[in-house]
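// run 5 | inverse folding | seed 20
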């Protein structure tokens, strides 16, 4: 089994891939080591922490520094086999003794962002250290304080080397988290390819849009579809949701936290998957249903020859081009069916939905009219 820094075996996910540790777990380990050194003069290395689900990983220290009233410890994040932008980021925690009765105060150091928009689980002006990592750090600080008969009044400054540059590759700027990364994690463990961070960012994006009073948001599958959404609807950045392949995540969260209108903008092939009922649009987890496209074309008046060519196309785009050559509005038909699937997932939530299909160049090749959710049907009395 592969080994982590510190000599502890790596966890294996059910897929056989190595799990990793969140920035919150790394910050907790660094904070625990720094406070221990501040009270004892010695850094525990590796430092062991307890995660919310009971795991007890050990973290080797990347760096350490001890002064009279403060100590700094650093941990290098290992995201395991997950393609995480924060993999190998250095998470630092500087713990400084506080005034009696001050408790634990969190501060954003270099590379950790500050909240500037409402809608997140932290107040505006707070360092972007999420609630669960804060709780985890407080618990470990309290345990160290109790062990060494200390009051536990400290300031904790968390920083991330090059965090501001890394954050540009995340949702943080759009969510109004400026100056760096967020310290995240609810379990402390990164499960490879679970995409939990992306889905959480989608939810936080909806929260921010609602808090900003945006009545209209757009779920976009990529940067080209975002550009089209801006051109078509004139939406501000905080109303654009980087949906990627996770149409289901957008729809299910809006079902519980609605806005007036959702526009879904994406490539023809991806929206044809949604039209077929797939909520995960990734190429490895769903495929274009060419038989469905052929059936839609036949319903629109396609000849048997054209329908057969569409069914035998090698790609969704090839099917679209065949339909276009025959003068068939396959793009509109896919957009309309995708809209209707989205409305079914929303389950009568008060959200009006429209869809826009684009090709690889960003040209609009199909669209649906906006349609409001239908009220839930009442069962008749027996």
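// decoded
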């Amino acid at each position: 089994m592969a080994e982590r820094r510190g000599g502890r075996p790596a966890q294996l996910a059910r897929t056989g891939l190595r799990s990793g540790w969140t920035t919150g777990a790394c910050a907790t380990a660094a904070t625990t080591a720094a406070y221990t050194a501040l009270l004892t003069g010695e850094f525990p290395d590796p430092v062991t922490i307890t995660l919310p689900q009971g795991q007890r990983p050990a973290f080797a220290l990347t760096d350490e520094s001890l002064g009279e009233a403060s100590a700094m410890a650093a941990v290098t994040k290992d995201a395991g086999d997950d393609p995480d932008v924060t993999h190998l980021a250095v998470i630092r925690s500087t713990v400084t003794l506080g005034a009696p009765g001050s408790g634990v105060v969190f501060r954003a150091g270099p590379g950790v962002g500050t909240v500037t928009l409402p809608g997140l689980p932290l107040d505006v002006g707070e360092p972007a250290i999420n609630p669960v990592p804060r709780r985890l750090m407080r618990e470990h600080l309290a345990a160290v304080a109790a062990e060494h008969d200390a009051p536990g009044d400290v300031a904790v400054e968390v920083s991330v080397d090059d965090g501001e540059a890394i954050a540009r590759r995340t949702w943080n700027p759009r969510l109004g988290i400026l100056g760096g990364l967020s310290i995240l994690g609810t379990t402390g463990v990164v499960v490879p390819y679970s995409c939990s961070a992306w889905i959480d960012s989608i939810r936080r994006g909806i929260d921010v849009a609602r808090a900003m009073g945006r009545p209209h948001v757009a779920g976009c599958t990529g940067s080209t579809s975002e550009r089209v959404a801006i051109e078509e609807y004139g939406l501000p950045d905080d109303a654009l949701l980087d949906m990627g392949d996770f149409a289901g995540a957008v729809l299910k969260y809006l079902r519980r936290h609605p806005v007036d209108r959702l526009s879904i903008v994406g490539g023809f092939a991806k929206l044809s998957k949604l039209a077929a009922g797939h909520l995960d649009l990734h190429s490895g987890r769903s495929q274009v249903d060419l038989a469905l496209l052929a059936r839609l074309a036949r319903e629109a008046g396609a000849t048997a020859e054209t329908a057969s060519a569409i069914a035998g196309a090698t790609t969704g785009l090839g099917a679209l081009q065949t339909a276009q050559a025959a003068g068939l509005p396959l793009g509109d038909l896919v957009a309309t069916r995708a809209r209707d699937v989205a409305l079914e997932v929303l389950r009568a939530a008060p959200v009006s939905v429209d869809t826009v299909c684009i090709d690889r160049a960003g040209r609009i090749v199909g669209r649906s009219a906006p349609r409001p959710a239908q009220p839930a049907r009442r069962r008749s009395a027996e």
